[in-house]
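REVIEWER CHECKLIST
Item 1: Sequence provided? yes
Item 2: Single chain? yes
Item 3: Sequence as submitted:
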Amino acid sequence: MTSITAQPGIMDIALYQGGQSHLAGVEHVLKLSSNENPLGPPPSAVTALTQAAAGLHLYPSTDHAALRAAIAEVWGLEADRLICGVGSDEVLQFVTQAFSGPGDEIIYTQHGFSMYPILASMAGATRVCVPETDRVVDVDAILEAVTPRTRVVLLANPANPTGTMLPDGDLERLADGLPDYVILVIDGAYAEFAEGYDGGISLARDRANVLVTRTFSKLYGLGGLRVGWGYGPSAMIDVMTRIRQPFNLSVVQLAAAEAAVRDTAWLDTCIALNTVQRARLTGALRQLGLACDDSHANFVLARAADSVEADAAEAALNADGILIRRVAGYGFPEGLRITVGNADQTGRVISALTKWREERVA
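Item 4: Structure as written out by the authors:
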């Protein structure tokens, strides 16, 4: 019997499960399970990473000044209000760890990103899950759940795994309705895919209790490097920086991310491809009798009639060497989250599902 015990909340954490990468007996798998960029990273980022590799014997900068300056320049932000992390997940960890603890509450929504309850438990805070309405965040449900113990609200917009999002007016109403002691965190991992949306930056610029986060893992195609950033009021960033490891990002991470954020032409190409193929995939799924909401991200959540039909659809895709993500853990046993690929990949998904549907009807 050991007297060593974990801190409160840690043993409540269920291990995170990433998207599947392999299929038994399939050599060349089409992986559409992790919302990765089908075009990969910008060539400019690969070049920058390769060149930076010559300096692997040197410690990276502790202040991420060059990367923060690049982000500030491209997005029209103030560099001293930015913080960088190992993916946006680490930035989310900074804010929950710095501003909540045992006795406090962290609010997230019914179908919210599965890291949110994990982050709350890591901080030792009480997890408060509020319902959504038709797979969309319910602002009133969040506001009704706020108590004097609430410290953080975690909200993905666009949301994962639904792809739905709150319009700017509702997002502003939420920010206005929260007490000033509650931090609203707007997780913008998929913000760049939503046309005309600034990811909550305007709210974070003008309010003392709003933080927005972004990642280089999705649009920028750097999921294998893990880089993200957050933007918020200077006082909040100052507190979070005090718990950030000084060398949390390597020289190659910093170099590749800086090149990627400056390569706006590449990003425009990726966004344009996603917009076209997302609409194509959505239309085809609906024609095949698979319900799906309009997605504002780089994936579509298809909903079968039930889990049995979803199992059959997934099996048909797997038989063609295609991996998608089942999202029963998010409250959708009937759901299949499908990453938007390039034209050929999208056609392959549609063809496999069309064949499956025709065989079921026959």
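Item 5: Key structural point noted by reviewer: Residues 49 and 128 are 41 Å apart (CA to CA).
Item 6: Recommendation: ____
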